[in-house]
Write a structure and sequence with these properties.
heterodimer, A: 564 residues, alpha/beta, TIM Barrel, 5-stranded parallel β-sheet, 20 helices, B: alpha/beta, 45% helix, globular
Chain lengths: 564, 130
């Protein structure tokens, strides 16, 4: 009796594939990599996926949340269309909000459309429009605002307790929040009913030429802001860690996640030092990442993000509750740096493909970038096309019917796992240096610049293709209507802030600013003991201090310097 | 050897373009000085002090339509008209003709190649040498 050889069908198929490959392609040399430089094979098979521990995949809504933050994703509620906008005076920006809302700007789980406010560079840097540094820049690429009166012009008659507001304002975030609290109160909304996120990006200085507070002080302020939000505004996200800007500066997908997480870890540890248990606040952190050129990196990056955060919260911080392990506010923005000034209509295709990747990765909110990104800020038309892109994916493709439909793909499970490993290794490297040191000695900056330079070189040689730029370029200049800034805005904004100051009780304001300074200094010197800082900021707001005046106190107290 | 002053506004964080261009220029053997400015006269002062051949302004979120003409005007007034003023960044096409009229020699918008920029600066040097 002969024993029958057990034929493993997988091995059989692989052997046949290898033989067909050798015959057809003989000595073909392949050098395939993802955009981040991860070497990949031309074909993946079951054994590649089997190497991934199933416990790292699991089911959506279940630790470690690789496949999705909840058991159902878009079947229950669509993703939020979190489109940023802002230009000119507050009333101009409010007009744009009303247009976008009419065209389908959508909130989460039946809520009102989100108001994603982009301040101009003057506001974002924390200056009033009549400061000489503001000349020529007021209301140009964002809205100019600096008083509670401006916020009333933005938000009048809106149901603030039923809508998410996103504050793209970086360093002045605590002041912006204080001003929103006071404005909302006047409109009849108690603080604890407010919903939104502060983009309190205190560490842009580590990779961009953005001034920031001294890093140790930045951490104290980040911790304090987190603590204030956790204690006073249950539906407020104290920040949304910024991977997107890292990517735009040149970081590859692995660096983007690793440096973003390094900041998240430092902020969490500082907030724990300030006396909170991580279960009190980590569920209110958001993440803001890019969807760039590499389609599968985009998908796997989102899956990897959820898995890594689950592990960090459970194993590193000791969180006990599922809500703490679950990264549930992942905002994906399609990458601006992938779009071109040449043949701009091509960008509609790029943004659509990137948006699809975000949907396949189960993002919670998506910002589709407009086709004229490399030319100007969006017009009504280009902003509406972004909404249409998302609406087409949502309503026409059936993709949202199945959670994590790419789950189980041999390549996707392998790549997700590989990205998790590479990101964790890079996080460990930063741990060895400490986050603050890695900023101060310029290491993070250097790593990102290295990637940016590699990318640039590859474009120059043509190894990396940008359609319409280094391949299929044409001389045709497409005539298109672009956003144009209104030259009257600067004059009016200056007039308004000067009137505001003239009409207030300036003695009261000065006193409140002095008090704010005292408290800020004590906060800085005594942290983690010592006073809270927010009550003094809120008092200054009630005494009609302007954004620029309060930021001046902050700059002087906490140090303001450029990247290392 | 060409000496270039690369400058960006202190309010603007975007510097990937300027840094990349600086590196390409240095690799090509040019001397590059990098500054941040609050106001246009700071650029003019630095250019004079450093005795540069070219000023390159990087701008991506506005302000260039005020800053560039101011710098061009200031250079002329101070007898520094031999310095070539160029710009790069996200500058909409519709603004370029006006900038060129007001004293900007060339605008290198998105998609410009590094080689293009380096060659342009080299060509200035040769033009001055003849």
């Amino acid at each position: 009796m002969t024993a029958e050889k057990v034929i493993n069908p997988e091995e059989k198929a692989e052997d046949e594939w290898q033989r067909a490959y050798d015959k057809r392609y003989k000595s073909l040399e392949l050098d395939l990599k993802t955009a981040a430089g991860i070497p990949i094979k031309p074909v993946y098979s079951p054994k590649d996926a089997r190497e991934v521990n199933y416990e790292n995949i699991g089911m959506p809504g279940v630790y470690p949340f690789t496949r999705g933050s909840h058991p159902l994703m878009y079947q229950y509620t669509r993703w939020t269309t979190q489109q940023g906008f802002g230009f000119g005076l507050p009333e101009h920006t409010r007009e744009r909000y009303d247009v976008l809302r009419r065209e389908g700007l959508s909130g989460y789980a039946g809520m009102e459309a989100p108001f994603f406010l982009i301040g101009d560079e003057v506001t974002t840097a924390g200056y009033d429009p009549d400061n000489p540094i503001a000349k020529g820049r007021v209301g140009k690429c964002g809205v100019s605002w600096c008083t509670t009166r401006d916020l009333e012009r933005l938000f009048h008659d809106l149901p603030l307790d039923k809508m998410f507001t996103v504050w793209n304002i970086f360093l002045p975030s605590p002041i912006a929040l204080a001003m929103y609290i006071v404005t909302a109160e006047k409109m009849g909304f108690p603080t604890k009913s407010l919903r939104g996120v502060s983009c309190f990006y205190v560490f842009e200085q580590m990779f961009m030429d953005h001034p920031g507070y001294e890093p140790e002080n930045a951490l104290k302020l980040a911790a304090e802001h987190t603590k204030f939000c956790a204690r006073n505004i249950p539906y407020w996200n104290s920040t949304s860690f910024d991977g997107y800007a890292l990517q735009e500066t040149g970081a590859n997908a692995v660096q983007e996640l690793a440096f973003m997480f390094a900041e998240a870890i430092a902020t969490t540890e500082a907030t724990m030092k300030a006396g909170l248990s991580p279960d009190d606040f980590v569920s209110r952190f958001g993440f803001h990442i890019a969807a760039g050129d590499d389609f599968f990196e985009n998908v796997c990056k989102i899956r990897a993000l959820r898995q890594i955060w689950a592990r960090l919260t459970k194993e590193r911080f000791g969180c006990q509750q599922a809500k703490s392990w679950r990264a549930s506010t992942i905002q994906v923005e399609t990458a601006g740096d992938s779009l071109t000034a040449q043949q701009p209509l091509n960008n509609i295709a790029r943004a659509a493909i990137q948006t699809l990747a975000a949907v396949l990765g189960s993002a919670n909110s998506i910002w589709t970038t407009h086709y004229d990104e490399a030319l100007s800020i969006p017009t009504e038309e280009s902003a509406t096309i972004c909404l249409r892109t998302q609406q087409i994916i949502l309503h026409e493709t059936n993709v949202p019917n199945v959670v994590d439909p790419l789950g189980g793909s041999y390549y996707v499970e392998w790549l997700t796992n590989k990205m998790v490993e590479d990101v964790m290794a890079l996080i460990r490297k930063i741990d060895d240096m400490t986050f603050v040191e890695a900023i101060k000695n310029g290491w993070i900056r250097q790593e990102i610049e290295g990637s940016a330079w590699e990318y640039r070189k590859a474009l120059e040689t043509g190894d990396r293709v940008k359609v319409g730029v280094n391949k299929y370029a044409t001389d045709d200049k497409l005539e298109m209507r672009l956003h144009k800034a209104d030259p009257e805005v600067e004059k009016i904004a200056i007039q308004r802030v000067q009137e505001f100051r003239a009409q207030r009780d300036s003695q009261k304001t000065d006193k409140a600013l002095q008090k704010m300074r005292q408290v800020a200094e004590n906060f800085r010197d005594m942290w983690p003991d010592g006073p809270e800082i927010m009550p003094a900021i809120i008092e200054a707001v009630r005494a009609d201090a302007t954004l620029g005046e309060m930021m001046e106190v902050m700059r002087q107290t906490f140090g303001f310097r450029y990247s290392y | 050897m060409e000496k270039i002053l690369l400058a960006k506004s202190s309010l603007e964080g975007h510097d990937r373009g300027a840094r990349t261009v600086a590196r390409a220029m240095r690799d090509a053997g040019m001397e590059v000085i990098f500054i941040r400015f609050d106001t246009p006269d700071e650029v003019i002062r630095a250019a004079e002090q450093e005795d540069v051949d070219v000023i390159g302004i990087s701008a991506s979120i506005g302000g260039y339509d005020y800053v560039l003409p101011e710098i061009a005007k200031g250079l002329k007034e101070k007898g520094l008209g031999h310095i070539t003023l160029i710009a790069g960044g996200v500058i909409p096409l519709y603004d370029i003709p006006d900038l060129l009229k007001k004293g900007v020699a060339k605008v290198f918008g998105p998609g410009s190649s590094l080689g293009e920029i380096v060659d342009y600066i080299r060509s200035l040097d040769k033009a001055k040498a003849t």
